[in-house]
Specification:
This protein has 136 residues and is of the alpha+beta class. The chain is 32% helix and 29% strand. A hairpin with a 2-residue loop joins β4 (117-123) and β5. α1 (13-26) packs antiparallel against α2 and α2 (31-51) runs antiparallel to α3 (106-114). 22% of the residues are buried.
Amino acid sequence: MKKLTVNASTDNLTTVLEFIDAELEAVGASMKMIFQIDLAVEELYVNIAHYAYTPEDGNVIIQFDSYGDPPLVEIQFIDQGNPFNPLENAEPDITLTAEERQIGGLGVLMVKKTMDEVDYRFEKNENILTIKKSLS
């Protein structure tokens, strides 16, 4: 398992994506898989950067692991910010026009639709959000 710890700031998004991309390339992920996983990582990381520690700041740990054949990628986001499960929010009604819809929720919906598994838990004062994606 590889680990990166950064301050939960949008200024570190490039560092996070470079870390994820290097690990994905090392396990032979296709460009399509890298793109899908990058979108999910960006959405989740930016949400943590904007909301986890407001108004203070703190760190987020990003852990990357892959196993199996074909490889299954597992990425965890761990922070000690405000407890928050983004998976509990009501999904946006995508049948409405953009003007009629409430703001927010589309990013998490996209993560749920593109990843094979998305899980949240709060334990030992930590938010732990896990995404999994098969590279097959």
